[in-house]
Amino acid sequence: MATEGQAPAVDAHAHVFTRAMPFAADAHSRPDYDYGVDAWLADLDRHGIAHGVIAAASLFNDGNAYTLAALAAHPRRLRGTVIVPPETDVATLRQMADLGVVGVRLTWRRIDELPDLDSDPWRAFLRRIADSGLHVELLSRSASLPHLLPALDKAGVRIVIDHFGVPSRDNAERHVGTDALCRALDTGRVWVKLSAGFRMSFDIAAEVTDRLLAHVGPNRLLWGSDAPFVNHEGSTRFGDTIDLYRRLVPDPAIRAAIDRTALALFFNEESPA
């Protein structure tokens, strides 16, 4: 169980899936269990979390049907992101937005050659994402951020960055990535998730959290559990992720401000007093 303290208002990053869903050919993991939307909602209820945002899982490539069904079943409580090919038209993106989709996830953490965002199809695709009122949800290594973030900003899209910007264990590389995060945050169109901290050392997660809070404060930060902790299921429980968050951000007032950020960004709401 999580320690005492007010629960986060929004879990801004979790994956839902069943064993019936087809894996992508290049899936880096193949979970042999279900973590359906009802299981996630039960975890949210158990820990007093009112809202959630589904992060499209790269394990299933552009298989979005389960996410869209979950959003349709829980329109007040849930939002989500999708993975779609860059040829996706604006009408399709807007239809997804009407169902509760808030962003398009770009999962580039494990690719060696990044796409040229200044050329089509990516240039036109990013414009359509922006025109549809969606953001880009970016999962990429810290070393790539100095290249990717200015290119995405040039395209005029809002950006939500996953997992602290995936900070490198290499000090120099990590600092370069965090510098790029801070420059991007200065644009006012970027947010960073304090999510999946269990996938890195506490010292690295704390270093990046402290740097981001010192640079921009809580108004551009979000928290996410990364449930169901793929590849870490045996060592991480839902309550552990909340405990880690409270260690990284011990001030309840700052966490309340992060709640307000998430509610405004994803649900157009203010947090309760």
From TrEMBL:
<dbReference type="InterPro" id="IPR052358">
    <property type="entry name" value="Aro_Compnd_Degr_Hydrolases"/>
</dbReference>
<protein>
    <submittedName>
        <fullName>Amidohydrolase family protein</fullName>
    </submittedName>
</protein>
<dbReference type="Pfam" id="PF04909">
    <property type="entry name" value="Amidohydro_2"/>
</dbReference>
<dbReference type="InterPro" id="IPR006680">
    <property type="entry name" value="Amidohydro-rel"/>
</dbReference>
<dbReference type="InterPro" id="IPR032466">
    <property type="entry name" value="Metal_Hydrolase"/>
</dbReference>
<feature type="domain" description="Amidohydrolase-related">
    <location>
        <begin position="10"/>
        <end position="258"/>
    </location>
</feature>
<keyword id="KW-0378">Hydrolase</keyword>
<dbReference type="GO" id="GO:0016787">
    <property type="term" value="F:hydrolase activity"/>
</dbReference>
